[in-house]
């Protein structure tokens, strides 16, 4: 088997609900049916497309509820696995930053990778659900509740309405107006999750098929065995398929570098502006608690920060947190998402991380 394959589910119900070929759902079904995992950790739609709920599925018949993409959610599975599933063998659907979090936690002896199948999903970025509803109302001129499906494809954010109609607007136009993808997603260079066992998606795929890049021996065995047992069909992608996928990835990486320059050089926050942000801090510890790679049982912030002082001294509170996480920052943006005072925390951690990375590899 080559490094790249096109795959398609053989289950008709999965194919009906699938985004592109249903291979990911079919692979999860194979793992559950063959009792190779205790459960599958993934997302399913809650009340609407803006409500992505983490679920742990142990019955393969329930997997159909998770088919399709949810771009208006930004859950990171790293800490969920660490906190709740250490004693389980699991399969998990991962964005690139999920896979980064899981691997960072494995380096810190918090997760055993032998117990995990990571099935990666190509990621052009996610959108804050509250902002997505505002964006749809403002730019698409429709009630956000009338949207039944969304997708990001060919540089556009596309919505499907209850009446079956589609509307699409270019992502860059939305982002020029301060909407579109989350800021950390705009800066992210890792679009294809080669840090997972398989990297799956529609980039370069033929209609009705999933393009899969095999990234580990575990992933290779999974695809081979799932095909042998009739859960998926596979075929070789053409050179054109591979080139299209490569071109999409290259263009998205170029765009990410443009955003990095824009965020960290051209319009980076001044010292005076940072001080205003630090003065907003209410020391709720939300940034720490949401961070997938914060693992200390006895957090330094609670012992060193002055009791009761709000706002805390930024050199003590945010400086200590920065020293703890910036070298391992995965740019997931969880800290920024949960901050009730809207402090752009991911800006500073990601910027420091990139500087450390540059010093290590180029210094």
Automatic annotation (TrEMBL):
Pfam family for this entry, one: FrhB_FdhB_N
InterPro entries tied to this protein: 4Fe4S_Fe-S-bd, 4Fe4S_Fe_S_CS, Co_F420_Hydgase/DH_bsu_N, FRHB/FDHB/HCAR-like, FrhB_FdhB_C
Keywords: Iron, Iron-sulfur, Metal-binding, Oxidoreductase
Molecular function, one GO term: metal ion binding
Cofactors: FAD
Transmembrane residue ranges: none
Entry annotated with the keyword Metal-binding: yes
Stretches assigned to the 4Fe-4S ferredoxin-type domain: 320-350
Family: Belongs to the FrhB family.
PANTHER family, sorted: 7-HYDROXYMETHYL CHLOROPHYLL A REDUCTASE, CHLOROPLASTIC (PTHR31332), FORMATE DEHYDROGENASE SUBUNIT BETA (PTHR31332:SF6)
Protein known as: Fomrate dehydrogenase
Organism this protein belongs to: Methanocaldococcus villosus KIN24-T80
């Amino acid at each position: 088997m080559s490094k790249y394959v096109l795959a398609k589910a053989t289950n008709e119900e999965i194919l009906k609900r699938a985004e592109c070929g249903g291979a990911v759902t079919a692979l999860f079904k194979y793992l559950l049916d063959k009792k190779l995992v205790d459960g599958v950790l993934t997302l399913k739609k809650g009340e609407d497309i803006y409500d992505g709920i983490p679920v742990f599925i142990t019955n393969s018949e329930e997997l159909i509820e998770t088919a399709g993409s949810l771009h208006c959610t930004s859950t990171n599975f790293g800490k969920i696995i660490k906190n709740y599933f250490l004693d389980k063998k699991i399969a998990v659907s991962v964005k690139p930053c999920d896979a980064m979090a899981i691997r960072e936690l494995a380096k810190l002896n918090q997760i055993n990778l032998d117990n995990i199948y990571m099935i990666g999903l190509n990621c052009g970025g996610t959108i804050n659900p509250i902002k997505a509803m505002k964006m749809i109302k403002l730019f698409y001129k429709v009630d956000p509740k009338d949207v039944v499906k969304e997708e990001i494809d060919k540089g556009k954010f596309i919505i499907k309405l209850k009446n079956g109609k589609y509307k699409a607007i270019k992502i860059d136009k939305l982002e020029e107006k301060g909407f579109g993808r989350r800021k950390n997603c705009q800066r992210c260079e890792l679009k294809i999750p080669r840090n997972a066992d398989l990297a799956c998606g529609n980039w370069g795929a033929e209609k009705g098929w999933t393009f899969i890049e095999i990234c580990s021996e575990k992933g290779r065995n999974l695809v081979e065995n799932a095909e042998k047992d009739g859960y998926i069909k596979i075929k070789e992608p053409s050179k054109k398929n591979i080139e299209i996928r490569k071109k999409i990835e290259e263009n998205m990486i170029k765009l990410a570098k443009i955003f990095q320059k824009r965020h960290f050089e051209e319009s980076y926050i001044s010292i005076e502006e940072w001080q205003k942000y630090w003065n907003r801090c209410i020391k709720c510890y939300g940034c720490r608690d949401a961070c997938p790679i914060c693992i200390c049982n006895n957090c330094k912030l609670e012992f060193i920060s002055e009791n009761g002082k709000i706002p805390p001294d930024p050199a003590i509170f945010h400086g200590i947190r920065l020293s703890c996480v910036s070298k391992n920052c995965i740019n997931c943006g969880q800290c920024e998402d949960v901050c009730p005072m809207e402090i752009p925390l991911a800006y500073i951690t990601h910027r420091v991380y990139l500087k450390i990375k540059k010093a290590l590899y180029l210094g």
